[in-house]
Amino acid sequence: MAKIKIQINSSTYQPDVDPEMPLLWVIRDFVGLTGTKYGCGIGQCGACTVHLDGHAVRSCTIPVSAVRNQKITTIEGLSTDGNHPLQVAWKERDVPQCGYCQAGQIMNAAALLMQNPQPSDADITIGMSGNLCRCGTYQRIHQAIKQASLARK
Ligand code: FES
Ligand code: FES
Question: What is the pLDDT of residue 153?
């Protein structure tokens, strides 16, 4: 065990954990932010997506010791009151079904828009291809990302 200083959503935490513990467990079990979900645990589904210094990463595959001094953002920190253009579009398009994958979808989409504010349809399809939705909401996710990208013009 070791005390590891990490920064999540502008707050600093120092959990006493195994340095090899996946970041996802620290976010959920030690910090108590449960918006980030566990899906596959092997980097294949995207449910656990958070931002690391603005880039989308799979928090189930990253040891917490690897994120010292880096800025982690979870779905709880994406906006102060749920008014990020993607969150607005998600509500207007009524995107989620069961909702389980959606935090990861939104975080992946937010990173995509940071890197490419006006993505083409192909850019969205490719950029979101690693995020799985067992409910099949892909079409509405695509439309919501398009709407959010236009709202940011
Ligand atoms: S839980 Fe991390 S990619 Fe599936
Ligand atoms: S909304 Fe159910 S898994 Fe995506």
Answer: 64
